[in-house]
Design a protein that fits this description.
468 residues; alpha/beta; ten-stranded mixed β-sheet; six-stranded parallel β-sheet; 42% helix; binds GDP-alpha-D-glucose
Length: 468
């Protein structure tokens, strides 16, 4: 059986006992790596003052080699904070207004991809299967091919692929498209993303479907499909069911004094629609003055990418929205929005999901959104809460028991909050059961298995067709 080589920007390292860190993706990929042994390569998290850092750390544990490469400060600024997070992330989330394109940062992005390729090649064995993750590393396959690598290489995009009109705004659009075509398999979160990608190929005359599941792109065959990522459904359900004794969850419950809890959990990112969600909650309070003191929104939002200016600005905006609502509607006994930037442990998170009568998930655009799935998996089967879900989250294509909203429509979201809070038990159970059945059969292990099975089906030596 082939070894698996995984490459991602960051590498979730196991603890001293070899347990993978919490998080569905880390657990599933670790399980796949352990099966036949393998390598997980990525950035070490360290940046140095050297122009070309040589630091490469290798840790061996349980048949897995973790290979961690240092980057220079310039690499980090240009590749990660620059091109990946200030160009690709906003454009792929349909925020052309936030894209800050600089030629130097683009050069840094391609330079780091070359560095990853240089470091990876000496470690590869002929029948290794390589799985590259996410938008930081799109050009990696092409760089590996240029170095003579003929192994099967797959790519999974965790974020959305936007319609052609949006993505053509990317100054290196063709290079990025060619970079993706260098893979044997390209995986997206949803059919919608896949259709958008094929639409891009068609519009420029670069490619189209040749046979089902296979694209002919830039004179080469590439398999493409949707692989919606799942969560550790069973683990979440078990964690949530046994949180009764967790102090934080109990304290939270007591402090609510019987008011209904609505929960939002997001990395503090402009794609998550947090400010619009707060506005919608305020609109709900204004339309339902009798509910004052009876409903509380808990918004958990750990800081993220604080080196990127657009994130700092958005943090200030969310804080001011929360302050405004609490100032206008709060009383000495009741704070309508509890806003925390602290990161919580998974058991606490699962307990809070279960405590909440409503999961409010309102991204403006999201590849999948795991929080929506975790909220559902954490519910009490006998008395489940209601998921309110943005139609612009990838998860909306699977979780058909949610109340769907358009996050730009504040009135609609406010109405959905009212509907969710008053939904009868039998309807809540019926909606939840449908979603839970799906999450049980499509968990993160299913996702990992399905992607790797498809990659293993790619014909041998498909990559030999790429020379440039
Ligand atoms: C990208 C795509 C896609 C959050 N706060 C805490 C905490 N979290 C965990 C959640 C969830 C994860 O972070 C966030 O996952 P999302 O899916 O919502 O979002 P991104 O980080 O943007 O991820 C996304 C995903 O990749 C996977 O493919 O779904 O669309 O953007 O698991 O639980 N976890 C803990 N404490 C917190 O305070 N323990």
């Amino acid at each position: 059986m082939s070894r698996l080589v995984v490459v991602s920007n960051r590498v979730p390292l196991p603890d001293e006992n070899g347990n993978p860190p919490p998080g569905g993706l880390a657990v599933a990929v670790h399980a796949a790596l352990r099966k036949n042994g393998g390598i997980w390569m990525g950035w070490s998290g360290r940046s140095t003052g050297e122009e070309e850092p040589q630091g490469l750390t290798t840790l061996e544990q349980d048949k897995i080699s973790y290979v961690l490469t240092d980057l220079s400060q310039a690499d980090l600024d240009e590749y990660y904070n620059g091109f990946a997070n200030r160009v690709l992330w906003p454009i792929f989330h349909c925020r052309l207004d936030l894209a800050e394109y600089a030629r130097q940062e683009m050069a840094g992005y391609f330079r780091v991809n070359r560095l990853f390729a240089d470091r990876l090649v000496p470690m590869l064995e002929p029948d290794d299967v390589i799985w590259v993750h996410d938008y930081h590393l799109i050009p990696l396959a092409q760089e590996l091919r240029k170095r003579g690598v003929r192994n099967r290489i797959g790519f999974f995009l965790h974020i959305p692929w936007p319609p052609a009109d949006i993505v053509t705004a990317l100054p290196v659009y063709e290079i990025i498209m060619r970079g993706l075509a260098a893979y044997d398999l390209v995986g997206f979160q949803t059919d919608y993303d896949l259709d958008n990608f094929v639409g891009c190929l068609r519009r420029e005359g670069w490619g189209d479907w040749s046979t089902p599941g296979w694209l002919r792109a830039f004179d080469k065959e590439v398999a493409a499909a949707a692989f919606p990522i799942g969560i550790e459904t069973g683990d979440f359900a078990r964690l949530a069911a046994k949180t009764d004794g967790l102090d934080l969850v109990t304290d939270m419950e007591q402090s609510l004094h019987g008011s209904a809890l609505i929960i939002g959990v997001d990395r503090l990112d402009y794609s998550k629609g947090i400010a619009a969600r707060i506005d919608a909650f305020e609109r709900y309070l204004m339309r339902n003055p009798d509910q004052a003191g009876k409903v509380t929104l808990l918004q958990v939002a750990p800081h993220s990418r604080s080196d990127v200016p657009e994130y700092l600005e958005m943090q200030g905006q969310v804080e001011s929205h929360c302050g405004r609502v609490n100032g206008a509607h709060g009383t000495i006994e009741w704070v309508p929005i509890r806003y925390v930037n602290q990161s919580l442990t998974r058991p606490v998170l699962a307990g809070l999901y279960r405590l909440a009568k409503v999961g409010l998930v309102t991204p403006l655009r999201d590849g999948m959104n795991l929080v929506a799935k975790e909220y559902v998996a954490s519910q009490d089967p006998a008395d489940p809460g209601v998921l309110i879900l943005s139609r612009f989250a990838g998860a909306a294509r699977e979780l058909d028991g949610a109340i769907f909203i358009n996050p730009y429509d504040t009135e609609q979201t406010a109405g959905a909050i009212g509907r969710a809070l008053s939904m009868p038990l039998d309807e809540r159970i019926a909606r939840w059961r449908r979603m839970m059945d799906h999450l049980e059969s499509h968990d993160v292990l299913w996702w990992c298995r399905t992607f790797l099975a498809a990659l293993n089906e790619a014909p041998e030596d498909n990559g030999a067709l790429i020379r440039e």
